[in-house]
Amino acid sequence: MRGDSVGWLDKLKRKSPKKQKWAQMLNGYTPIFSQFGTNIYASDVVQQAVKCIVDEMKKLNPTHIRYNRNDPVPVSGTIQTLLNDPNPVMTTSEFLEKITWLLLLNFISNFRLSA
Q1: Which long-range contacts (CB under 8 A, 24 or more apart) does 107-110 make?
Q2: DSSP letter at 70?
């Protein structure tokens, strides 16, 4: 009986691997994964990572503060007015979204990718 269980385990170990194929996606296309080379903007992974950061940054409520003996004190002035209403076309969250996209994509574009 003990010899049978060992033989059974050996059969599992020797099982031949099946040929794996790519499954079609719901829209009918087959997924293709490749390197994006030196154009980092072509990478959907990079774009999605930046989008996650941007989505969190635009939730912030910026406040202009100054420190008075280690205590933060809000300052009402032109800088706070600019943070509350950056321009007639954008809200504060849209402004934060735009500057975060620009900052991160400019930061990423300064990297030189070498193969």
Answers
A1: 108/40, 108/46, 108/50, 109/40, 109/41
A2: T
Give SS3 for 22.
coil
CA–CA gap between residue 94 and residue 49 (Å, rounded):
18
Q: Which amino acid is at 32?
A: I
CB-facing half-sphere around the CA of 68: CA atoms within 13 A:
4
* Tokens representing residue 68 in the block: 């008075």
Find where tokens 């420190």 sit: 67
Cross-strand partners of 71: 68
Q: How far apart are the first and last CA of the chain?
A: 57
The model carries a pTM of 0.58
Please report where in the chains the tokens 């620009």 appear, as a residue: 102
In tens, the pLDDT along 82-98 reads 999 999 999 999 999 99
